[in-house]
Design goal:
single chain, elongated, mainly alpha, 259 residues
Length: 259
């Protein structure tokens, strides 16, 4: 009957169901407390979460806490992921490996990852993040040219450089498509030219927006290994022109001048 049906739908909750709800509410309250501590100091926030048994000290659990907990400062997440000791590096690898980039193009995958934390300013940390990203992207997309993580890394780094060049107002003379393709072709010869052209257009039309919060921006060009004037032979017209060269890891870029 309708009366019986109503009685079934409004039955009292069992002790186990009530206990579960109380436990869930307590957990949410504890998570909020951990987030508050974390947003002031990321190291203390993780220690608090471990002490309150919200997570264990396993790197993968810390990584899940950083990605899944609501209300965490993305600046503090970036700061924690940028730690240089073995534990923080393991957490970073676990964090990146939680993402599935299957069937996503490279730029969209970078957008997804970099939307979750503020990219730190140190070149060494950026390199490490991009390295783990490249390994994960190649694992998710094992078709050429992305089956080689070193190729994916070179391309990902070049896109960060291109993004900085095209969308930084202080840089007056922007890198042309031909310059970009020529630059990256030296480091990654296996990447088809049409793909490079398409990636350039996507970055130019829609920049990769890096979360800044209260983090510093990262002038990658100023963190280069070597830079200075060199003479360069033209591509189509075989004349020699003086250009400002910037060497960063395995990538060599050239500009008309240092500005």
């Amino acid at each position: 009957s309708e009366e019986e049906e109503g009685a079934v739908n409004t039955r009292p909750k069992t002790k186990s169901e009530l206990s579960f709800e109380i436990t869930q509410r307590q957990r949410l309250k504890i998570l909020a407390e951990c987030a508050e501590v974390f947003n002031s100091n990321s190291e203390n926030g993780i220690k608090t979460a471990i002490e309150l048994e919200v997570i264990t000290s396993e790197p993968v659990e810390v990584a899940k806490f950083l990605l899944d907990t609501k209300g965490l400062s993305r600046a503090q997440i970036g700061k924690y992921l940028g730690g240089s000791d073995d534990f923080h590096v393991q957490v970073l690898r676990c964090y990146v490996n939680q993402f599935s980039f299957q069937s996503l193009d490279l730029i969209d995958s970078m957008r997804v990852l970099f939307a979750t934390f503020c990219l730190p300013g140190e070149a060494q940390i950026i390199d490490r993040i991009l390295q783990f990203f490249a390994e994960r992207y190649s694992a998710c997309n094992p078709e050429p040219p992305f089956n080689d993580p070193s190729t994916t890394l070179s391309l990902a780094f070049s896109l960060i450089m291109l993004n900085t060049d095209l969308h930084t107002s202080e840089i007056k003379r922007k890198m042309s498509k031909e310059q970009y393709i020529e630059n990256i072709s030296y480091a990654a010869t296996s990447i088809p030219r049409p793909l490079l052209s398409n990636l350039y257009d996507k970055i130019k039309q829609n920049q990769i927006k890096l979360i800044k919060d209260d983090c510093e921006t990262f002038p990658i060009l100023s963190r280069a290994s070597h830079q200075g004037w060199l003479w360069k032979a033209g591509g189509r017209t075989k004349t020699w022109k003086k250009r400002w060269f910037v060497l960063k890891d395995k990538l060599l870029f050239y500009l008309e001048d240092p500005q």
